C-alpha cells in the first residue's frame, strides 16, 4: 500500500513538473484585416475598412440615426458610419461617407467613385469638437470603387465592398482599403 501511494505521488510530481516545463503559448494578435467585420450578406448592420492599414469599424450610436446608416431611395445611395476614437483627453469621431446620385444600383456591379460632380463620391473625415478638423475627398485623380455584392429590395438589404484614395485641401492623402458593409437600408425603393 505504501508503495502504491509513493508511486502515485511520483506520478503526480512528474506530471506537475512536466506542466511547469511547458512553454506557455502566446495567443497571436489579430491582423488589422481580421479586426474588420466579416463580409456577410444578411443585413447584419456592420461596416468597416482599413484606414492607411488600421482597422476602423462602425461603433457607437450617439446620433439620431443608426450606425452604420444607409439610405437607398430611387437612384440615390448613401452609406455613412462612424467610430469614436480617443485623441488625448478628447474624443473624436472618424466618419466615412459614400454617396451615389442618379445611379440605379445592381448586384455584382462595380461603380467608380470619384469627384462629387460625377454623382459618385466618397469622403472621410475626423471631427474634433463641433467642426471637422480633417476632411479627405475623392476627386478625378484620387478615385475608388464601390462593388455591390447583394441588393435585396424585398428585405432592404444591401451589401458590398469598397476602396478609395482621398486627399485634403493640402493634398495629404489617405488610403481606404478592404472596405465592407452589410446593412439594412432605409428608403422607398420599389420592391420587386
What would your notes on this structure say?
The chain has 192 residues and is mainly beta. Helix content is 10%, strand content 47%. A six-stranded antiparallel beta sheet has the order 2-1-11-10-9-6, with no helix packed on it. Strands 3-4-5-7-8 form a five-stranded antiparallel beta sheet, with no helix packed on it. The protein is globular, with a radius of gyration of 25 Å. The model has no long low-confidence stretch (mean pLDDT 84).
Widest sheet: strand order? 2-1-11-10-9-6
Query: Segments where pLDDT lies below 50 for 5+ residues?
Result: none
**Count of strand segments:** 11
User: Percent range for helical residues?
Assistant: 10-25%
Oligomer: single chain
Largest sheet: 6 strands, antiparallel
Task: Categorize the overall geometry.
Answer: globular
Amino acid at each position: 500500500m505504501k508503495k502504491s501511494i509513493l508511486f502515485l505521488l511520483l506520478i503526480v510530481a512528474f506530471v506537475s513538473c512536466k506542466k511547469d516545463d511547458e512553454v506557455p503559448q502566446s495567443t497571436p494578435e489579430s491582423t488589422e484585416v481580421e479586426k474588420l467585420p466579416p463580409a456577410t450578406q444578411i443585413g447584419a448592420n456592420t461596416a468597416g475598412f482599413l484606414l492607411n492599414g488600421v482597422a476602423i469599424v462602425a461603433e457607437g450610436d450617439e446620433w439620431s440615426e443608426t450606425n452604420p446608416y444607409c439610405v437607398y431611395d430611387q437612384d440615390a445611395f448613401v452609406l455613412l458610419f462612424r467610430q469614436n476614437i480617443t485623441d488625448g483627453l478628447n474624443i473624436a469621431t472618424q466618419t466615412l461617407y459614400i454617396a451615389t446620385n442618379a445611379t440605379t444600383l445592381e448586384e455584382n456591379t462595380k461603380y467608380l467613385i470619384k469627384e462629387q460632380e460625377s454623382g459618385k463620391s466618397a469622403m472621410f473625415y475626423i471631427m474634433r469638437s463641433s467642426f471637422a478638423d480633417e476632411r479627405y475627398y475623392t476627386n478625378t485623380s484620387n478615385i475608388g470603387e464601390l462593388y455591390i455584392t447583394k441588393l435585396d429590395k424585398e428585405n432592404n438589404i444591401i451589401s458590398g465592398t469598397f476602396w478609395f484614395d482621398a486627399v485634403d485641401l493640402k493634398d495629404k492623402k489617405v488610403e481606404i482599403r478592404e472596405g465592407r458593409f452589410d446593412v439594412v437600408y432605409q428608403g422607398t425603393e420599389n420592391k420587386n
